[in-house]
Amino acid sequence: MPRPGRGNVLLCLPSYREAEWAVEYLREHVSKPVLRDRSSDSAETDAMLSRFFQDDGIHRVLVTSARGTVTEGVDYRGHRLHCAAAVGVPYANTAAPRMRAVTNAYDRTFADGFETAVQVPAVRKARQAFGRVLRGHDETGVRVLLDRRYLPDAPRSVNGLLGEAERAEFRVSPDMLDLGLAQFWDSNA
To answer: Which residue in 49, 144, 154, 162 could disulfide with 85, CB within 3.0 to 4.6 Å?
Structure first.
């Protein structure tokens, strides 16, 4: 099993623009090679994934949008991925005319258009993204939700939209993340 700091990491941000910013930051602050996914054709995505999955003993970080293509339909089986993190809540652009219309329609029908039109699809995208790390019962990995809104008492909390089992996994506060990761990998060695 990988030790802390070992294994490939998938970071899923709300948008490609935010992912681009994160790549610039990470390239200056982490020792692993950092790859950036972006909206591209399938040949470019396949080439980038080949570099990410390359079995050369070097572990990498792949930064993408939680609304992108590598967060669903890509097989991260076995030891291809050891940590997946959804950074932020990947809301669609709520200022777009279409999104405003959909939110208003849900408001009239269900009384909470923001939850139905924006929050539910965003949490589905985050769950899809961090779910990449565990594809089978025999796999071990870390799934991280990085945003206060995943907590139950936060303003605009989306905690209630997570499954009961996912909510039960909330075990480590941000200030204890390093220790929690070390303990996790020690107990799963």
So the answer is: 144
Q: CB-based contacts of 86: which residues, under 8 Å, 6+ apart?
A: 12, 66, 125, 126, 127, 129, 130, 144, 145, 146, 147
The secondary structure element, H or E, covering residue 64 is strand 61-65
Please choose, from the candidates 52, 48, 57, 44, the residue with its C-alpha nearest in 3D space to the C-alpha of residue 76. Answer: 52
Rounded to two decimals, the pTM is: 0.88
pLDDT digits (tens, 9 = 90+) for 83-106: 999 999 999 888 899 999 999 999
Residue from 116, 119, 90, 121 nearest 102 by CA: 116
Query: Encoding tokens for residue 168?
Result: 């039960």
Helix (H, G, I), strand (E, B) or coil at 144: strand
Rounded to the nearest 10°, the torsion over CA 24, 125, 151, 4 is -50
Maximum CA extent, the chain: 55
- Model confidence pLDDT, tens digit, residues 32-42: 999 999 888 88
Reading the block at residue 52, the tokens are 């990410």
Strands 83-87 and 9-13, by their bridges, are parallel
Which two three-digit tokens encode residue 110? 């269900």
